[in-house]
């Protein structure tokens, strides 16, 4: 499954263009612009599965750093501070990674 099966290419391009500069990534505005905030829990789980590159059931810090590249290979990697802030926002139970339920909460926040 491709991310474009769930999200439109136009919305992805728009969301990525809004955070091209280093340290400009804001997960709330990104999720809203890309259209993920308005998707069903099942669709959000499918996107989580795409982002969980190693199929561990979690999105770890290394995968978060490459978050934007999952939407487009030409996108930039997140900076260390963006990655840490993103992880802190999503890691509700403090285990250092984001599970599917945590991701759904983060998307719908």
UniProtKB/TrEMBL annotation:
Signal peptide region: none
Listed SMART domains: EFh (SM00054)
Annotated ranges, domain EF-hand: 39-74
PROSITE patterns: EF_HAND_1, EF_HAND_2
Keywords (A to Z) from UniProt: Calcium, Metal-binding, Repeat
Positions that bind Ca(2+) 2: 91, 93, 95, 97, 102
InterPro entries referenced in this protein's UniProt entry, alphabetically: EF-hand-dom_pair, EF_Hand_1_Ca_BS, EF_hand_dom, Parvalbumin
GO CC term, one of those recorded: cytoplasm
Entry binding sites for Ca(2+) 1: 52, 54, 56, 58, 63
Origin superkingdom: Eukaryota
Annotated GO MF terms: calcium ion binding
PANTHER family, sorted: PARVALBUMIN ALPHA, PARVALBUMIN, THYMIC
Function field: In muscle, parvalbumin is thought to be involved in relaxation after contraction. It binds two calcium ions.
Stated family: Belongs to the parvalbumin family.
Name this polypeptide is given: Parvalbumin
Organism: Aythya fuligula (Tufted duck)
Upper lineage: Eukaryota, Metazoa, Chordata, Craniata, Vertebrata
């Amino acid at each position: 499954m491709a991310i474009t099966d769930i999200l439109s290419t136009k919305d992805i391009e728009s969301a990525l263009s809004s955070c091209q500069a280093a340290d400009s990534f804001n997960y709330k505005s990104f999720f809203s612009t890309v259209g993920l905030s308005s998707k069903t829990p099942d669709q959000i789980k499918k996107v989580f599965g795409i982002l969980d590159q190693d199929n561990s059931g979690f999105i770890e810090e290394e995968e978060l750093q490459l978050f934007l590249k999952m939407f487009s290979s030409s996108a930039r990697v997140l900076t260390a501070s963006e990655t840490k802030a993103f992880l802190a926002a999503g890691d509700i139970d403090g285990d250092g990674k984001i599970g599917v339920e945590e991701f759904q909460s983060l998307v719908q926040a």
